[in-house]
Every structure is written in structure tokens, then in C-alpha cells.
Specification:
The complex is a heterodimer. By secondary structure, chain A is of the alpha/beta class. Helix content of chain A is about 35%, strand content about 15%. Chain A has two domains: about 5-190 and about 295-390, 3-Layer(aba) Sandwich (Rossmann fold), CATH 3.40.50.1820; about 195-290, Rna Polymerase Sigma Factor, Chain: A. Chain A has helices spanning about 135-145, 160-170, 190-205, 215, 220-235, 240-245, 265-280, 285-295, 330-340, 365-385, 390-395; strands at about 15-20, 25-30, 35, 40-45, 55-60, 85, 90, 95-100, 115, 120-125, 150-160, 175-180, 315-320, 345-350. In chain A, helix 1 (about 135-145) crosses helix 2. Helices cover about 35% and strands about 25% of the residues of chain B. Chain B is globular, with a radius of gyration of 16 Å. Classes of the chains: A alpha/beta, B alpha/beta. At the A-B interface, strand 13, helix 9, strand 14 and helix 10 of A face helix 3 and strand 5 of B. Chain B: Pfam families: MetW. Chain B: It comes from Paramagnetospirillum marisnigri. Chain B: This is Methionine biosynthesis protein MetW.
Chain lengths: ~400, ~210
């Protein structure tokens, strides 16, 4: 029984697109297991041009999804990059064809631990194989194959999405004309692994986690997942951002209550972040995807020299970091720049001044958006993509 | 002292004219990328830039140029040997921590290096120091000693002596006035060292 024929009603309302991949040729995972067929949920914006040269693959971050510019089906909130997508915007839908898929191991429609294992008819849970960033990218490449696209005009993503961008260039250099890894790194640092471990332990310490079998046992480890989200959320901000937003302001009271309710606004805010997150995210997915990030180390995969990962790549790179991002600080981006310089790759690198921390890549940062627009413009000129509205005029000229 | 000529400062235009069409160029301290943009547009050059200021990098990348944030002292060592036809360092050598290392890297990375810098041997500088006994502040050296980014001033003679020491061939040596125009001076170091506000040099590795 394929997942699409599964008797279990899909948790996700049927917006967006979905495709079954790997029926004839299973996905060979880094851990050695084979997976297939799998479902991949994705979304597209704009139109693919005749020679299929205008496709941009957007890679989402840890808790992101393929609803880049659509209202989220569960929360109803605007898509996570909706301000960047549309006619005349950074990712101009009059010019580019945008693709974003929910990652392997995710919980928004792509095969992951929450979905039904066709072999058993039960949710995968912890029997789902451990996946890597490389596995996610391999699945994305299958989707791009399915869409009939040989070369992507651009692969772009922030944070874990940026890891996927780097993996794309490493694995499929000839398929990536330009690449924009944002607020990312070529390996997950010890500190970042440590934060992820705190999150995982919080989930696994929740009695409702039931050794990962909560879906079968009818419980949900909401408390553990909420704590994981609260801890992680702090790492996405910055001290100045937290200070500006909350300071030591109290929540609906004039003085501290000498108890453990949320006295401070920042506590109340974090609790809210945690409690809303559990409505839209699966705890086991969180374990699997954080693990995939922890395992990511492009230098180690290439004999300990990061430059080897990009040798021969003709991709045009634009690397972006943010001054106040302490989760993926600028030196991580700079290490990638140095590696690319060492193989004389075509690379731009901008550190954007922002006090918004790691999350800056999701927020309104005009200088960041101008950088993206300018880089895409330059890359489009080199790729020979006409400006919107210019193609017809160009053809009519003698 | 910005003189625009075909949208390019005259001294940059002079450099641009030296670059062969279709070549690979690394512009170190490229600012907002005016030279790179001109070279890309007019000479089909594959150009890259390094710039220290965040505003400069941001403007350059927003114009579609391949520019990284970095500086000559720390970032040149990463590039492989022979990656470029030209490595350009305009008005920046005197602001580096290790000019000798920078120069060595430039000629390792590039087949040729194009270097310009303000000449501390100019007669006005000498006179300033002689008569006033104070650090000279001129059009080409517009800072007071306590806030200048220029930490390694040299004369044209000093520079040529360093090139000799490093076994660098000086292919062309062009004396410039303070506006960046070529000075019609006799082809001898002494005259240039006395009368040129700036020196512009095309260098290559010996042998």
C-alpha cells in the first residue's frame, strides 16, 4: 500500500502539490538504508520558461515548510518569505519559477517519522531511518528531475536551508547556476549541536513522548516539544533584540509575584512561542531534522578540506551573514568564502548589519533584500534571462 | 578630487585602459565596484573584488558584482596561485599592515599586479616637513597623523627598491598628478619621486 492509498487521513489540508517519488528507484540514504516510494509535498510560484532556465529552488530551515508565500494551512499565518515572493519582488514571480519542498523527515506532507510506513501500516516513529542534509538534497534533486529541470538558476536558503544550498553545489555542481547560502555554515558547530541536544532531551524527557510511539498511543509530547522550541527560539534572537522588545518588563502586573508564573514579558513570549509551535510541528520530526543538521560537515566529507567540496564548481555564490547572528556567526560564512576563494570560485559575500539575530533572514531587512535582488539581477544577466516584459520587445527588434 | 571621466575616476580609467579585454581581474579595495563594473561592461572582464567597508560591499553586490567583504592583509592568502591575470590595488597599499606580504601575494595570485599609491617623496611633502616640522596633510594624504588609515607611507623610490628586493619586474611606471592625470616627466625615478603626487605601476613576476 502506498502512502497515498493510506486509510489514515492526511493531517495537512490539501493545499500545495504532492508527488510520489522513488517507486522504481528507492532513495539510498547516507545511513545505508533505502527508502521508497516517498511522498514529497511542494509548492511552486511563477512559471517555468520554455528552456527551463529560470527555476529557483528555495530550501527551508529547520521548522520551515514549503508554504513560502501561502498562508500556513494550520496557523493561517502568511508564508515565511511571503514578503520576498511576488511580481516585482526579490523573487520576482514574473521572472522566476520558484520551487520549495518540505524536507525529507518533515511533517508537512513529505515522508517523515509522522507518516505511515507502508510496510507496517503504522506511523514510522523511531523506525524511520536517520537522515542527513545530503539525503534531503537527494530527494530535492529527484523532485527537480520530476519537474524536468536540468539546471536550477538558483538554489537559496537560510540556516539549515543554507546547508542544503552548499550540499547542492557539492553534489550537483553542474545543476546549480547560482547559490545563496544565508546565515548558514558548512558544518554544525559544537555549540549548535549542544543546543539541539537540549531540545531533543526535552522532548524525550516528556512522559508523553512514549519512546517515540506517541502517535500510536494517542499522546503528544507537547510540553517537551514546547521547551525545545523555547530554548531554540532564544538562539534565533539576539540579546539587543530581546532587550529592545521586552527589557525587564513585567507581564500584566506591576510587581513580581514571588512565584513561578510568567512574571516577565519575555517568559510569557517564550511560552507562547512554545505552545503555538506544538500545533504545527511533530516532535519526532524535530529529533530527526536537528540530527541531520548536527551530522552536517562538508569539510569532513571531503578529506578535511572544505575547498575540496567546491573544486571545479562554476556556480556563482552570494554568501550572506548578519552581524548579530550568534547561532551561525559571520566567521562560519567567512570559512565558506575562504574555501571558495581557494578554488577561485565566483563569490560575493556580504555581512548585513542587523540587531535581529539569526532570524534576520526571515525579517524585513532592506539591505539584505537589496543584496539578494542585485545578486539575482547580475546572475540573471549572465544566464541570459530576459527582464520581465523585456523579452517581447527584444524579439521584435531587428 | 573625484574626477569623473566616462563615469570613472581618471586614475581608475588609466588602470582600466591597461587591462586586456576578456581577462580575469581581482580588484583589492574595490569600493563600490566602479572599476569592476566598467571593466565588465566595456572589456568583458571576469572581475572579482575585495572591499573592507560593509557599505561598499553591499552597494557592489547589489549592482550584481562579485565582491566579498574582506581585506588585503587577511584574505589574499586564500587565493590559489595564478588565479587572475591582474590583481589591482589602487590607493590602498599604504593602508595595509604588511605591504610586502600583500605585494608578494598579489604577484603570486596574478600574472600582473597594478598598484597605485600616494608618493611621500613629492616636493610639497618634503617641503611641508622641512619648513613646518609637522606631518604633511595634502590632497592625496588628507588625514592628520592621529586618524589616518595610511600606516605605511612610502616614496616612489622606496617602492621601487622593495620591488627590486622581491625580484619583481616593473613593466610600467607612470607618474600622476594629484587629480590622477599622467605627468609628462622624464623617464627617471628621481623626477617622478620629486614631482609625482601618485605613482602607478604595472608589475610582473620575474622570469
Amino acid at each position: 500500500m502506498s502512502p497515498s492509498e493510506s486509510p489514515v487521513a492526511p493531517a495537512i489540508p490539501p493545499t500545495g502539490l504532492s508527488v510520489e517519488l522513488g517507486r522504481d528507484r528507492p532513495i539510498r540514504l547516507d545511513c545505508g538504508a533505502e527508502l521508497g516510494p516517498i511522498m514529497v509535498a511542494y509548492q511552486t510560484y511563477g512559471r517555468l520558461n520554455a528552456d527551463k532556465s529560470n527555476a529557483i529552488l528555495i530550501c527551508h530551515a529547520l521548522t520551515g515548510d514549503h508554504y513560502v508565500a501561502d498562508p500556513h494551512p494550520i496557523t493561517g499565518k502568511p508564508g515565511w518569505w511571503s514578503e520576498l515572493v511576488g511580481p516585482g519582488r526579490v523573487f520576482d514571480t514574473d521572472r522566476y519559477f520558484l520551487i520549495c519542498s518540505n524536507v525529507l523527515g518533515g511533517c508537512m506532507g513529505t515522508t517523515g517519522p509522522m507518516e505511515i510506513n507502508p510496510a507496517t501500516g503504522q506511523p514510522w516513529g523511531l523506525s524511520f531511518p536517520v537522515i542527513t542534509i545530503g539525503d534531503m538534497v537527494q530527494v530535492q534533486a529527484r523532485l527537480v528531475d520530476f519537474l524536468g529541470i536540468d539546471q536550477l538558476f538558483c538554489v537559496v536558503g537560510g540556516s539549515m536551508g543554507g546547508m542544503q544550498v552548499l550540499e547542492w553545489v557539492h553534489t550537483y555542481p553542474e545543476r546549480v547556476f547560482s547559490a545563496i547560502p544565508i546565515a548558514s555554515a558548512a558544518r554544525h558547530s559544537a555549540q549548535n549541536i549542544a543546543f539541539h541536544e537540549v531540545g531533543r532531551q526535552a522532548i524525550m524527557a516528556d512522559p508523553d513522548w512514549r519512546d517515540g510511539n506517541y502517535l500510536l498511543e494517542g499522546t503528544r509530547p507537547h510540553r517537551g516539544l514546547a521547551v525545545a522550541r523555547m530554548a531554540a527560539h532564544i538562539t534565533y534572537l539576539s540579546e539587543p533584540a530581546l532587550h529592545q522588545k521586552f527589557g525587564r518588563n513585567l507581564q500584566n502586573r506591576d510587581k513580581v509575584a514571588y512565584g513561578f508564573d510568567a512574571d516577565f514579558q519575555v517568559e510569557s513570549y517564550l511560552r507562547h512561542q512554545g505552545s503555538t509551535f506544538v500545533d504545527r510541528f511533530d516532535a519526532n520530526s524535530y529529533l530527526y531534522i536537528t540530527r541531520a543538521m548536527d551530522y552536517f560537515d562538508l569539510a569532513a566529507e571531503n578529506g578535511g578540506t572544505l575547498a575540496n567540496a567546491f573544486r571545479g564548481a562554476r556556480t556563482r555564490f552570494c554568501i550572506v551573514s548578519f552581524t548579530s547572528d550568534w547561532l551561525f556567526p559571520t566567521p562560519e560564512s567567512r570559512a565558506v568564502v575562504h574555501a571558495l576563494n581557494a578554488v577561485a570560485a565566483n563569490v560575493s559575500f556580504v555581512e548585513i548589519k542587523s540587531d535581529k539575530g539569526h532570524d534576520a533572514f526571515l525579517l524585513d531587512e532592506p539591505e539584505f533584500h537589496a543584496t539578494l535582488t542585485g545578486f539575482l539581477e547580475g546572475a540573471a544577466a549572465h544566464r541570459g534571462l530576459p527582464r520581465p516584459g523585456a523579452a517581447v520587445v527584444g524579439r521584435s527588434q531587428p | 578630487m573625484m574626477v569623473i571621466n566616462g563615469n570613472l575616476r581618471v586614475d581608475l580609467r588609466l588602470i582600466a585602459d591597461m587591462v586586456e579585454p576578456g581577462s580575469r581581474v581581482l580588484d583589492v579595495g574595490c569600493g563600490e565596484g566602479a572599476l569592476l563594473a566598467w571593466l565588465g561592461r566595456n572589456k568583458n572582464v571576469d572581475g572579482r573584488g575585495i572591499e573592507l567597508s560593509m557599505a561598499g560591499v553591499s552597494a557592489a553586490v547589489s549592482h550584481g558584482l562579485s565582491v566579498i567583504q574582506g581585506d588585503a592583509d587577511t584574505d589574499l592568502k586564500d587565493y590559489p596561485s595564478g588565479a587572475f591575470d591582474y590583481v589591482i590595488l589602487s590607493q590602498t597599499l599604504q593602508a595595509t599592515y604588511a605591504p610586502k606580504t600583500v605585494l608578494t601575494h598579489m604577484l603570486r595570485i596574478g600574472r600582473r599586479a597594478i598598484v597605485s599609491f600616494p608618493n611621500f617623496g613629492h616636493w610639497r611633502v618634503r617641503l611641508h616637513l622641512l619648513l613646518r616640522g609637522a606631518m604633511p596633510v595634502t590632497d592625496t594624504m588628507a588625514y592628520e597623523w592621529y586618524d589616518t588609515p595610511n600606516i605605511h607611507f612610502c616614496t616612489i623610490r622606496d617602492f621601487l627598491s622593495l620591488c627590486r628586493g622581491l625580484g619583481i619586474t616593473v613593466e610600467r611606471s607612470i607618474p600622476l598628478d594629484r587629480l590622477g592625470k599622467v605627468l609628462p616627466l622624464p623617464n627617471c625615478d628621481g623626477a617622478a619621486n620629486l614631482f609625482a603626487d601618485q605613482g602607478l605601476f604595472v608589475l610582473s613576476r620575474q622570469g
